[in-house]
Amino acid sequence: MLEDQFSICLAAMICAVLGAGMYFNLARGHESERGISTLAVGGALHQAGWFIWALSQFQSAGIGTWLAIVLLLLGQLGLLAGTRRAFARPALLGWWGALVPLLLIAIVASLLQWISETQSALMQALMLAPLAFQIGREAFSPSNDESWSLPRWTLVGVTLGLALTLMMTALGLVTGLITLNKAAMIWAMLACISALLLPYSYQLLISHRLYARLSKLVRYDALTGLLNRRGLEEHARRELHRARKHQTSLGLMLIDINQFRVINQRYGYGAGDVALKKCARKLREIAGESALIGRIAGEEYCLILSDKNSQSLRSLAVEIEMALQSLTIEHSDHSFHLSVTLSLVKYGRHGNQFEELLQSAEEKLQQRKGNLRSETPPEGASTITP
Predict the structure, then answer these.
(1) CATH top-level class for 3-217?
(2) What ranges does the record give for the region Disordered, renumbered to this chain (predicted)?
């Protein structure tokens, strides 16, 4: 063995051990995450395969190389199932499992010397490359349940790079552009890179998912799925900046469920939760996906509405008020309707900051509540004005 090849194979063995440790830490630190156990098992087999492959390069016997390929293939199958599970899809291998008996046939053919060493190396590359490509494809799939991020791009890049390198090696062996020794050098360098980058990309992916989940918990209301006070404030500031920059209109609507405490006392807290969730769904249905909707207090909702004039805001407010008051809330053996109060304010007229707009909306809401207590408005009339 050449001195350079010896050094690279030794480095590959060290990288395989370090990568295995990364999979172990991933499983130990995030054992409750979906697909982690499958990824850990598949990753451990994959790292063991690289270790044995690098070790087998110090001897001329081919059985060690084939054992390494078996472990690499089983490891990739485990990573494929774990990747599918990590992205909330069934961990089904399908016809990819047929690669195992095909590999066993190739091993028998090699040991009986029915195929040459070059053909053996070619078959090994052709066995592993499609699986590496499929792992990247699973991470790339648009149907995944999370948005694109740098960790996801890293995983796709590493797996597709692994597949491309294996295919280029196979092509070089077929055309005679590279020899077996050069192919072994390429595989040794590939082992060093993939043994570290692949587990690292999975670690990045899981860590990013946990960060995104914590970020969502901080900014979203767990009961209704709407933005909470902090999340609404952050989004509202961006909308206000856009309104100032492009000189567009922006309205803030505040909605309060009247006597919500009485509902909880009379029908139970479960009925109150049902009412809150039903109101949230109805608000999203009427206001649409473009509106920012938040639950900023126990029974208060806030809507940020962009690019709507005063007439559109008034019409939307009347529609929301009628829709919420016509909701039938059913819980256990009880059935009841809600009474709500709304207020509207506009950017520029009632304030230029979110806090100013919210304060103005709260004052108008309390004023309207007082007016509704003192007198009953005529049928069909609305006192909602931005």
Answers:
(1) mainly alpha
(2) 365-386
Task: Specify the fold of 229-374.
Answer: Alpha-Beta Plaits (3.30.70)
CA angle 266, 333, 262 (to 5 degrees): 15
User: 195: part of which helix (H) or strand (E)?
Assistant: helix 180-219
Q: What percent of the chain has pLDDT over 90?
A: 46
State phi, psi for 117 to the nearest 5 degrees.
-65, -40
Ranges of the chain with pLDDT below 70: 1-3, 60-62, 143-148, 372-386
The CA–CA distances, whole Å, from 116 to 165, 179, 183, 267 equal 22, 13, 15, 80
Common-topology check for domains 3-217 and 229-374: no
For the chain, counts of helices (H) and of strands (E): 12, 6
Give the 3-state secondary structure of residue 106.
Answer: helix
Of 263, 340, 335, which Cα lies nearest the Cα of 303?
A: 340
* pLDDT single digits (tens) 108-148: 998 888 888 888 889 889 889 999 999 998 888 776 656 66
Give the residue carrying structure tokens 């003192």. Answer: 374
